[in-house]
Design goal:
The protein is mainly alpha-helical and 131 residues long. 58% of the residues lie in helices and 8% in strands. The protein folds into 2 domains: 91 residues, Multidrug-efflux Transporter Regulator, Chain: A, Domain 2; 39 residues. A hairpin with a 2-residue loop joins β2 and β3. The radius of gyration is 17 Å and the shape is globular.
């Protein structure tokens, strides 16, 4: 539950018009999303979905990455989620099995696919950290 005082202090949800370009640097993303660069680097460690491409030691965010950063920022700063809560919310993916009108077989298939997706993401992080 959000306390009234905290809600009054939180900034209004961020409305951002993204420039029409393919890649954004970490500085550009930080400025667009009103965040510090170190926060973005930390979120990369915490949120497995956030994986900007890295070339010659520099991070390059694509439009989908910037939109994800904006979503994470909204969850944490505007909606009052904790980091574990935001991670759980993002890991649910697009299909919310409980709220959808899927039959039992479809629900089971979606749950299986979502579990596989999480396992693949974990495996990918493991491989990247080892090699």
């Amino acid at each position: 539950m959000v306390k009234p005082n905290k809600q009054a202090q939180s900034p209004a949800p961020l409305e951002v018009e993204l420039p029409d370009k393919k890649y954004f640097t970490i500085g550009e993303v930080a400025e667009l999303c009103q965040l510090k660069s170190h926060v973005l680097r930390y979120w990369e460690q915490v949120f497995p979905q956030l994986e900007p491409s890295k070339r010659r030691g520099r991070r390059y965010y694509q439009r989908a990455d910037v939109e994800l950063v904006l979503e994470i920022r909204s969850l944490l700063h505007d909606q009052g989620f904790t980091i574990p809560g935001a991670k759980a919310r993002l890991s649910k993916g697009v299909v919310d099995v409980a709220d959808s009108r899927l039959n039992d077989d479809q629900k089971s298939a979606v749950e299986g696919l979502q579990t596989m997706k999480l396992e693949i993401q974990e495996f990918r992080r493991y491989i990247q950290s080892r090699f």
